[in-house]
Amino acid sequence: METMAGQPPQALAETEAKIKTAREGKWKFMEPLMSELTDQSLQIKILSDPAALGEVRRKVELFACRMGFDADAAGKVTLAVDEALTNIIRHAYGDRADKPIEIELIDRAGELSITLRDYGCVVPKEKIHSRELDDVRPGGLGVYIISECMDCVEYQSAEGGGTLLVMKKRVTQREEQNNG
Amino acid sequence: MDNSPVKNVRWRDKTAIVDVVGDIDLHHSTALQTELIDVLSEKPELMIVNLVGVSYMDSSGVASLVKLLSRSRRLEIPLKLVSLQDRVRSIFEITRLDTVFQIFDTEEQAME
Fold first, then answer.
1. How many domains does chain A have?
2. Which residue has the higher pLDDT, A136 or B10?
3. Strands B6-12, B15-24: pairing kind
4. For chain B, domain boundaries
5. Which residue of A has its CA nearest to B3?
6. A141/B95 Cβ within 8 A
7. Does A51 touch chain B (CB under 8 A)?
8. pLDDT of A13-33, one tens digit each?
9. What mean pLDDT is predicted for residues B55-81?
10. Which of B92, B34, B105 is nearest to B58 (CA)?
11. In 10 A of CB B55, how many CB atoms?
12. Which of A42, A93, B19, B92 is the Cys-Cys partner for B7 at CB 3.0 to 4.6 Å?
């Protein structure tokens, strides 16, 4: 038996399954898979799709502003998270768009602690470095930008595989005074 | 293309002025690079990239522009960036690429 379009039923079922998967995937990528905001923390879980980056940036920047960072510092925090996520997508997951990434921001009495957890290939620590800025060529700037934007950056091997990136930045006294 | 970061390409004599819009991150940088290189391949005498509509750029966007610069130098076509928002200018300063690119406040200044 064939359908009106000439497709055998099995092929039609496979096509429908693919469409369903694509729709579910699109839905997931429209928003981070899950985000939870409390007074002191923000947790976001996404798939490694570059389409999710914009929404993550908006949430991270809002959290940083709410903590008391000024616009410039909040922008740098956001840039650091974006660059770290870009590195995870490109290097840990080899540009695959369906892998999990967990992001957690915690306000520890004026110090923002950010952890990014992936389950991808572990890049050896000695290979995580920025290139010389005088060497003008595309790529290799992300690690340098992260270190410039944050006070403290540390890469750790995560239990169960993958990498845990921990970044910290403190709200400056001037920012605290301006806020209050 | 609806999601294209290149909104418009304007020609003034043999100068190509490219209006770029949106957030230029990993999601859009490849498309930006392809479209800018397409304009460059039309061999303008001068290429201006207007970034007034770009509110955010990360290192993948910068990398696309570095690749464009490299190609423009090979073709001996001057490349100029204009109207960078503070936030976009900041990433050029952090990476010290503000000393590598020719950056101007306005199109008129870039065309002088």
1. 1
2. B10
3. antiparallel
4. 6-111
5. A51
6. yes
7. yes
8. 665 555 555 545 544 444 545
9. 96
10. B92
11. 13
12. B19
